[in-house]
Amino acid sequence: MKKISLLGITGSIGSSTVDVISANPDLFQLVAFSFYSNIEKGKDYIRQFSPKMVSVKSEAVAVELAQEFPQTTFVSGVSGLCEIAALPELDIVLTAVMGSIGLRPTLAAIEAGHDIALANKETLVTAGHIVMAKAKEKGIKILPVDSEHAAIFQCLQGEKMSQVDHLLITASGGSFRDKTREALKQVTVEDALNHPNWSMGAKITIDSATMMNKGFEVIEAHWLFDLDYDKIKVVLHRESIVHSMVAFIDGSVKAQLGPSDMREPIQYALTYPDRAYLKEQQPFDLTKIGALHFEPLDFQRFPMIRLAYEAGRIGGSLPAVMNAANEVAVAAFLAKKITFLQIETAVEKAMAQHQVVPHPSLEDILEIDQSTRTLVESWISQK
Ligand code: NDP
Ligand code: MG
Questions:
Q1: 97 C-alpha to center of ligand 1: Å?
Q2: Exposure of 345 by Cβ count < 10 A (0-12 exposed, 13-18 middle, 19+ buried)?
Q3: What are the distances in angstroms from CA 381 to CA 5, 188, 303?
Q4: Same CATH fold, 315-383 and 2-144?
Q5: CATH superfamily of the domain spanning 2-144
Q6: I need a labelling partner for 315 at 20 to 30 A (CA). Which of 18, 60, 89, 266 fits?
Q7: Is the CB of 96 under 6 A from ligand 1?
């Protein structure tokens, strides 16, 4: 029985994780979790799982819920997330909060010696060097939940990293893959939220439309698999059937295929190295799918990927700036304060103005994350 803490139970990954946990009560026990604005949904989960500890948005909410659920301990804020990530009895912590807020709790979990099932990619984008060094020092596993990285991880089982030639990360292209740059000037929030293949949280759906998400995934792959950026390639694959591939030095390429169902990589991260039956699987019949398509990626059409490679290669504090600027810009786009293309402009401008710190400490990263947010917010409020 694996004891799990789930950061971000009320999100899209959170709800798929709940499905996996509830379908396997003999394998998993949900000991702790967090929610933020979705208090009613969070309360339903407290009734369902009777957790030992729950982290919420504020002290006031914690006090109120403690009266309603006296069996559960309530904590709040980032320190609360760190507490539920570091409970001594845990086996694994699934990080599914949105954004770089996940960084400190992930480090707290690693410090406590817990394995991580990592959905929160912003953590590795922002501070991959710190997270991976800490994981190595503590001898814990970081198991990818992101479908591309889960695919690569599966392709690498039984292989030697020294015999990998390169990774091929597949990209669906997001909601606007067939639109020209000119047409992108007119797109709305509603258009952007309409992803062709995956149902996900709002922020990552926008990141998929700008392709920042794919850029983040390149950086995430660099840290998870310890490979140079020259060995990480992106290929456009509309069907989202091949979740990613690994090419080896002998020319052989391994791919992992499956339906667009996040429960599969979530469950694999939680059961690894075993597999378990997945209930109510989506139909997956390759003869009905018929054909799979792969196209080269146009870096002019998708400049955010180019920016992400640049941020990754230069490294230091630059990826943290890219991420923070993107978080603020995406929130502003979702609030209809800026246009779709202004997300790119904000990220590019923040990166161009930044004086890179080559080996940033955790404190440097947190400070740069905050100052970038303040800067981009001020640009947006001046509009
Ligand atoms: P959602 O927006 O659906 O959920 C985000 C979760 O984080 C919610 O539980 C939300 O709480 C919580 N949250 C938001 N802001 C804060 C905050 N400031 N402090 C604490 N908790 C907060 O996101 P997704 O589930 O789509 O994505 C989660 C992470 O997983 C992201 O990093 C994303 O990139 C990654 N990911 C997601 C995939 C997907 O298929 N959705 C695929 C691969 C990676 P509440 O709702 O209560 O406000
Ligand atoms: Mg992904």
A1: 4
A2: middle
A3: 37, 20, 25
A4: no
A5: NAD(P)-binding Rossmann-like Domain (3.40.50.720)
A6: 266
A7: yes
* Residues 95, 34: Cα–Cα separation, whole Å: 10
Q: What is the pLDDT of residues 217-229, one digit of tens each?
A: 999 999 999 999 9
Q: How far is CA 52 from the centre of its chain?
A: 26
Q: What is the pLDDT of residues 111-157, one digit of tens each?
A: 999 999 999 999 999 999 999 999 999 999 999 999 999 999 999 99
Give the distance (Å) from ligand 2 centre to CA of residue 170. 9
Which residue from 36, 38, 328 has its CB within 8 A of the most atoms of ligand 1, so it is best to mutate?
A: 36
Token output for 146: 């992101």
Please tell me the class of the 315-383 domain.
mainly alpha
Q: How far is Cα 370 from Cα 318, in angstroms, rounded to an integer?
A: 13
Q: Counting ligands in written order, which one lies closest to the CA of residue 195?
A: 1
Going by the DSSP 8-state scheme, the letter that residue 208 receives in this structure is H
Strands 164-171 and 142-144: unpaired
Give Cα 120 distance to the centre of its chain: 3
Residue 11 assigned ligand-binding role: yes
Pair type for strands 115-118 and 92-95: parallel
Asked if residue 303 has a cis previous peptide bond (ω within 30° of 0), the answer is no
Ligand 1 atom closest to 199 (CA) = 40
134 annotated ligand-binding residue: no
Is residue 7 within 8 A of residue 99, CB to CB? The reply is no
With a cut of 80, say whether residue 6 has pLDDT above it.
yes
Q: Are 146 and 121 in contact (CB under 8 A)?
A: yes
Question: Under 8 Å CB-to-CB from 74, ≥6 apart: which residues?
Answer: 53, 54, 55, 56, 61, 62, 63, 65, 66, 80
Instruction: Decide the pairing of beta strands 164-171 and 92-95.
Output: unpaired
Structure tokens at 50: 């009777």
What are the extents of the domains in the chain? 2-144, 315-383
Q: Round to whole Å and give the CA distance between 244 and 171.
A: 9
**Strands 242-248 and 164-171, bridge-based pairing:** antiparallel
Q: Is 200 in the pocket of ligand 1 (CB under 6 A)?
A: yes
Half-sphere exposure (CA, 13 Å, Cβ side) for 308?
A: 31
pLDDT digits (tens, 9 = 90+) for 183-213: 999 999 999 998 878 889 999 999 999 999 9
